[in-house]
Amino acid sequence: MADVFEVLGRDHTEVKRMLAELEAGSSRAVPDREDRLRLRKKMVEELIIEESKHEAVEEEYFWPAVRRLVPDGELLADEAVGQEQAAKHVLNDLLGKDPTDGGFEELLTRFTADGREHIEFEEVQVWPKLRVVITADEAEELGRKLEQGKKTAPTRPHPHTPPKPGVLRSAGPAVAAADRLRDRMTGRGQE
């Protein structure tokens, strides 16, 4: 079973890969402009889906653990959750936008810079402090909760939902079910 650092590390690696690919325009050689734009839109949809699930489970499980276990966990979690809330607003603004829409590239550039900064904050500022105080069993249990939680997490950003574990536990399943229904109806996130 993967521990919390492995689970989040895989997510971070995948997000960084997506961001690099989006910055490059696409690693796939797509000669037709319309196909390139369609691919870019699909890649951003995938990024929004994965980031939405990742942030939801972090807010429900990871940040409460940091608050509870790390001596300055409240400050670290507050800063990180603030970063995540700002990112949700940008992702929400990107949601449904076409790459030809005004502001699309600006929003994507902002999210890319902020996303990398947030990942670095977690990996450099938070993880080392958590590693010192979390037991191996706690790290594995937290990793399990994150993996399980992502299976039913919302697939869209919800910047106006308070990032409180209790709210997320009670409203999260209904919001996620509505997101997944909308995704099925629109074909969003499907190959």
- Write down the CATH topology: Four Helix Bundle (Hemerythrin (Met), subunit A)
Instruction: Give the proportion of residues in helices.
Output: over 70%
Secondary structure tally, helices: 6
Q: Sketch the topology as an H/E string, one letter per element.
A: HHHHHH
Number of domains: 1
Rg on CA atoms, Å: 17 Å
- Which class do the helix and strand fractions yield? mainly alpha
Shape annotation: elongated
Low-confidence stretches: none
**Mean pLDDT across all residues, rounded?**
86
* CATH level 1 class label: Mainly Alpha
Strand content: under 5%
The CATH architecture can be given as Up-down Bundle
- Strand count: 0
Biggest beta sheet summary: none
Could you outline the blueprint of secondary structure elements for this entry?
Elements: H1 4-24, H2 33-69, H3 73-94, H4 104-133, H5 136-151, H6 165-186
Helix pairs in contact: 1-2, 1-4, 1-5, 2-3, 2-5, 2-6, 3-4
